[in-house]
Amino acid sequence: MSNRSTSRAYAAALSTALIIGFSFLFVKVALQTADPLDILAYRFLFAFAAASLFAFPGRQGLRNVRAGAFKMLPVALLYPIAFFGFQTFGLVHASSAEAGMIQGAVPVFTLILAMLLIGERTGRAQKAFTLLSVVGVACLFAGREGAVFSASLIGIMLVLCSAFSQAGYNVLARKLSGTYSPKELTYYMNLIGFVGFGLTSVTRHTADGTLPRLLGPLASPSFLLAMLYLGVLSSLVTSYLSNYALSRLEASRVSIFGSLSAVVALGAGALLLGERVPSAALLGAAAILAGVIGVALSGRRPDSAKAALVQPASAAAHAASFASEGTPDAQQSSRRDGPGRR
After folding, report:
1. Which of 10, 28, 29, 162 could lock 86 by a disulfide, CB 3.0 to 4.6 Å apart?
2. Distance of alpha carbon 99 from alpha carbon 91, whole angstroms
């Protein structure tokens, strides 16, 4: 794989972490108007609508999605269905600090699953930097002001299932990236999210006799703005960027960038909401950054590492790739670049 392709993959993973890091601000806005399950339903309604308008995989891509629906279903069930489902109910019983610390272990879970299921091999340096990042996440959440630990077994188990779901998605999406393009996977994942969470929300309101209330949040401009961010950017765009990165990098390398979301969220809370950042949280953030940089550079040739740092690759470049990948030539090129076609 060329240095330029690798650099773009790292930029995609970094962009994903930045977008998700700011998503908590918009979740807080949305929660003022709707409950978590309705937010998920609207989130993937917006995501799938945007995918159909701006990220449609094309006729050939749609045929590939239909033909491979059964093979891609486990990926979509793991993420977004299982990931958000377990997380939503887990946060009812577990604190955000506990959830953040458990989610911080996703890179370790991914590393183990990738080794067992698809035969990925990692060096000692990468393992050490991955553990450093996990420890950093634990320090960051444990050291945050107001951190609470409920020690609820059911809450911890649900959040743990959410973390394993994300790790499983990382590995299976990496495996399927040699067969399906990032746009095809992204379109299918958001379709399943829209159908799954939409049906759940409609069924719940119908059973409770509160179906008219489901449309209530649409009258709030702030809710619509939050859904545009959470649906289009934090769901559709990030799922494409993740699938793009997983088609070019090992799952264990891509997953480590998820830890950066905690650092971004910490900084956003301090800068935009005036939250105080304790020294323990700063130490954890530093450990996360060191771990991510170490994983990105470990096991790579010096010229590759230098190229990844020198060559700029902006989120706009990925947006251009996102918009153009639907053509038959682009889809064929994407498959040729996938890990199974090298």
Report:
1. 162
2. 7
